[in-house]
Amino acid sequence: MTTGSDILLGPADTLHMAMTAMDRTGWQTCVIVDSEDKLAGIVSDGDMRRALLAGKGLETRVENFMNSQPHCATAEDTREELINLMRRLRIRVLPVVTPDRKLISVKVLDELIEEYRHPNWVFLLAGGLGTRLRPLTEQVPKPLLEVGGRPILESILRKYVTDGFQQFFISINYKGQMVKDHFGDGSRWGAEIQYIEERDRLGTAGPLGLLPEPPTAPMFVMNGDLLTDVNMTSMLGYHMDSGAAATIAVREYDLQVPFGVTRLNGHEVTAIEEKPVQKFRVNAGIYVLEPKMLHTIEPGVFLDMP
Fold it and tell me: I want to staple 96 with a disulfide (CB 3.0 to 4.6 A). Which of 104, 141, 171, 275 is the partner?
């Protein structure tokens, strides 16, 4: 096995052995494999508690109370897919199996996240008034509006953590205490959060001047009201390969003219194009900035980055 061998047990092993393995690793789960290294099931700490409450003794074989149809992954699943699946299911351990259920490895959520830690900071802009979304933002700041059952800003944070980023700064102003109350220090998501409090609104770039110290590596800056599936690690790699001072994420925006457009050569019609589509690349509100870019920002001065 490539990882997780400390929590592998056989069907005939006992509840006591499972408890010992979980206590040793802290992973709260044991993976059960048969004599042919095929996945037989999973035992969680919840399974053990239910077994004990049902009167089963410490010498009870795990095959008598294991989950024999656990969620599994395949060798084709990417790291990001594994993390997203484990978070959605709220599990910390996931077996990876072949089509015939032979165990390839055991993935542990904490280890998957830790393997790809980036030193780069992420600066999330969450201080806006959300004027265009009133009355929705009269009681809640825009980054805390829920989409898909969770606040937009939380989805952003989770996305970055999944992609291996840990150090966050969040700029707050309008109803900023609500943002602080929701996220705290970020440890709930495996993040470390510091807050930049704007006493006056400073625009989309001005808050960067309030950083306690300059970054030593390229830094992400992102609007706190965006939902995206951009791979942040790939974007960072693109930026570093380019040698640019700044990289801007863009998205394609199509604008269709609702009429037939004539092409003219003087007074002669050369063509009529019916309802043509014009394509634009618009600013998506995600940036990667080199540290030297921040030296041009004066602390406490309003500055937009449209």
Answer: 104
Q: For the segment 86-95, what is each residue's pLDDT rounded down to a tens digit?
A: 878 888 888 8
Instruction: Catalogue the active-site residues.
Output: 275
Per-residue pLDDT at 131: 66
Q: How confident is the model at residue 2 (pLDDT cuts 50, 70, 90)?
A: very low
pLDDT at 36: 85
pTM for the full predicted model: 0.62
